[in-house]
Amino acid sequence: MRRLKFLALTAIAGLGIAASAPQTQAQVSIGIGVAPACPYGYYDAPPYGCAPYGYYGPEWFSNGVFIGAGPWFHGSEHFHGYVDNHYREDHGYHGEYPHHGDRPRDGWHGSPEHFHGNEWRDGHGHGHDGHH
What is the DSSP string of 57-113? Predict the structure, then answer.
C-alpha cells in the first residue's frame, strides 16, 4: 500500500511540474496568402512582383489564366515551363511592369507572340538553363 501511495504522489507531483513548465511558442510562421493578381504572371521569388508580358511561355497558362509559381504553384509535379529571363531586372530589363490588378491586353489568351524562352523552370523557383 505504501508503494501505491508513493507512486500516486510521484505521478501527481510530475503532473504539477509539467503543468507549471513555461510553454514555448513556435518561431516559424508561414503566411502565404493569396497569389498576386498579375495579368501575365508574377515572378517566382519574393517579393513576387508582376512579371512583364513575354517573361512566361504558354505552358504557364491555362485558358489565359496563370497557373502559378513559387508557393502558389498548382501545376503537375513534373511540370516545366519556359521563361525569358531577359525580362528580369537583375538581367538588365528596364521596361514596363504591370501592376497588381492590371488586366491583360485585349485578345490575350496566355500565349505571348514570338516567345523565345532561354531558361526552363519547374514552378517552384528552380531554374535550369537551356532545354529540358
Answer: -GGGEETTEE---GGG--S-TT--EEE-GGGSGGGT--S--PPTTPPPPTT--S--T
- Would you call the peptide bond into 47 cis, given omega within 30 degrees of 0 as the criterion? yes
> How far apart, in whole angstroms, are the C-alpha atoms of residue 49 and residue 88?
10
SS3 5: helix
- Cell 501545376 locates to 75
pLDDT at 125 over 70: yes
What three-state secondary structure class fits 119? strand
pTM: 0.69
d(CA 97, CA 49): 9
